[in-house]
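Re: weekly structure request thread

Next one in the queue (441 aa):
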Amino acid sequence: MSPNPVTGVSVPTGLGEFDLGHLAFWARPEAERMAAFAQLRQLDQPRFIPFINNLPFTKTNDGLYALVRHADVVEASRNPKLFSSEPTTNAVFDMPPWLAPFFDSMINMDDPRHSRIRKVVARAFTPRLLAKLEVDLQRRAAHIVDDVVAVGRGDFVTQVAQRLPIQVICDMMGIPERQYDYVLERTNIIIGFSDPEYTGISRDYLIRHGAPGRRHIIPVSARLLKAGLDLIRLVRRLGEQRTRHPQDDLISALVNTNVDGDRLAPRDIGTFFILLLVAGNETTRNVIAHSVKLLTEHPEQRALLLADFDWRIGPAVEEIVRHVTPVIQFRRTVTGDCELGGRELHRGDKLLLFYSSANRDETVFADPERFDITRTPNPHVGFGGPGPHFCLGANLARQEITVMLRELLTRLPEIHTVGQPERLLSFFVNGIKRMPFETGR
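Done, posted below.
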């Protein structure tokens, strides 16, 4: 072990120990992982990561190049013709045919398919829908904090962080309140595909072997497929109802919106809903949870924010998203021979864009490990890099985080975490499953 020259944290000296495709790496403390990425950023070219895929009927031995520098992540994001989102962005392995119908959303498409669906979705977010959403956000945040005031302590994730995003998305789509828990349970299964709580596989086994073994794939895949199928069936039934009887919700807008002759098929609406749950619900809930954790660990930043909340909350949200980076990485596939970051790449090569590392790049962010709500400029890639796949819901996420923090911190300025959170074991989402808190009253 030796201290990293950038972070000062002791890390293994052999780069071979930084197996980014192995769950043991993601089970390490955050400081060690960030120190490892700092060392990887000093290499003269992106490093190749071997990967063993245990999914049946797919290629077994595989590998990817890790893009860990901000400039490389931005370049790959800006050039979708050369660095494609097809066949998938959210799996290190190629999406097998039996998974694609449930998870092959527009995020896994290039133009023209991507732009056609994105236009329909963007058109469905009408001014009336957005105005209703703004009112609902404030009302729901106030109700959540009312409940927190009443109990004074508990688990911040279940009592606060996960409630607002799931309620907003379900209400926006037109899903009845009685089905919120049904949706949340299935979302957790999809996001937690590598976590022992949702796979039924022991943490020791997952860390030792790096992934579920072949004997686990069938039950884990069955659970994942059922969760996806349940959500798609739910939205499909509602879509059929809204086609006949439209209401003031997003499903009605999606099934009835026609842009230049294009409208969404029922399957596209189902996969879009799953994308909303992953990108809109999971990421926002984790940013909200991490926010209170960061403000507990950095009381001087909390005091700074509370001294002029309205002035500082905008840059504070950007810094929280940078520091947290809720989505750790996405994948791209090379479409032709090229060079990136000093590495010769060839058609078919796979890249992992590590947003978490790019957001700590010391050539872009001064003292990148420091949490500083006054940081400017802050060109983070926490909502993805620039280009056609920049997060469609980024402004909604910012609004949700702002409303929730305003309600929490103005009514409960001393709310704080207690002890260490229980983290999701994942190489995809920087998730917190449970986090004890007290209000300070």
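The CA atoms of residues 20 and 49 lie 7 Å apart. The first strand starts at residue 2 and ends at 3.
Next request, please.
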